[in-house]
Amino acid sequence: MTDESGTVRRSPVVRVAADVSSQRADRVCEVARDAADAVPVVRTGPTGVDAIEPLVLLTDGGRTVLFPDPAPSAVSDLVTAFESDGVPAASTDATVDHDPDATALPTPETGALSVGCRRVLGPCGWADPLEPADHALRSSERHAGTVADVGILGRGRGDAREDEPAADAWELARETDGDPVVVVNANEPDDRHRADRTLLAGAPIAVLDGVAAVAAYVGAEDAVIYLNERDEELERHLRRAVDAAADALSIVPEVVVGPDEYRAGAPTAALEVMEGADRIEPRRKPPTPAEYGLYGRPTVVHTPRTFAQVQRALRDPDSFDADAPDPGTRLVTVTGDVDAPATVELDSATELAAVREAVSMTGAFKMACVGGVFGGITADLDVVDSEPAIAAAGLGTDGVVELLNDDRCPVATAGERARFASLENSGRCVPGREGTKQLTELLRETYLGSFRSDEIRELGRVMSRSSNCRIGACAPRPVISAMNEFEPEFRVHADGRCPNGTCFENR
User: Which intervals of the chain are annotated as region Disordered (predicted)?
Assistant: First the structure.
């Protein structure tokens, strides 16, 4: 069965939602297609909630029923019954009534999918990721300049305008001599971060539409999608998406891969990798990439999350409040001591504490690290999900909330992240190269009986203000925030004891 208006308006239809690398979902699709006679079976991208995938959705008109992670052996019966009797009226995990022309995944009133909102995430799990008609493309009629006043901030550490107005880079690239280029920085080797991957797997054509809109505004005729070399399934998926959307978009990006190293995801380090540099290290600024980027050309570097916000603004500019300090929404991956991670979308009025409803923790909650490996450690998630509020709380904005249980030691957690920084920094600047080593040593001395709080804080202040690289600037944050929240535990460690009973067990 085909429909020129795309998958989202097909009815009845069977959807199988899961990540592109899910072999279990491939098997569920195979069984469903074997059982189906007239009803189409569509493989969509992930919903963002790992625990319920593969998710089978049976839609007829304005009603959808959801079957989380069914056994492949049960799928045949589900599809057969659906074709003969329509949508089951009972005995389902969730039944959702919705607009028959819904373009976003209808969500139940309870459960992980009910957490937050689904604006940017809307197509994920619902739309065919390789069908342009499912994604309401707007770049052919509107470029990014039409939404520049919305004030979208760059999202994620891979964005050259992280937490700053993205449109400033667009204007600078437009004004700078040379042929502009647009880069989608999606090389994120840290498994804590899943938001960009969820978008590229579930709604790649929507991201490409945002890319085309920015390219049209800055006058770029070239665009590049930069991925991690490890993620071969996503690379193949994106190449198919680019091919599928080629006729619908004004620009066709090239897909390239970079090394599976944390520092290779920094915006200017990504440019160095793409230019074939021997060393992976960030460039000194100024100039910014918008002035001197890939091969010296004016370059706009954003993450998929930022381009998705652009595309959302093109589709529905009224959903953005230009007067808000952080217009739009933010994607947050909830991970840590949980049964399975989940990526949810929060508006700037929703507190981070809401993400706890999207996952099941293993053990009692003790603390969270907000913002990735170099995020801030806190026991209080009553902070709204906007850049000013998160920054004021000493946390990180990089779209990750790690929920850590009461088996975790804050001293050990901070120490592990300091050591990671000492190993992963590029070595280009002194604060990044030497500061991370000193920070690690000061924490190690705490275990040896000397907790030098003032020295740690002063070192952190110097590093955050003088580092050229993000690793050097952000490495003190987990340490300082952990000390602010759990300083008595640091002092107890200096006495040779760990309240969690873990740190000295081998001594």
Answer: 90-110
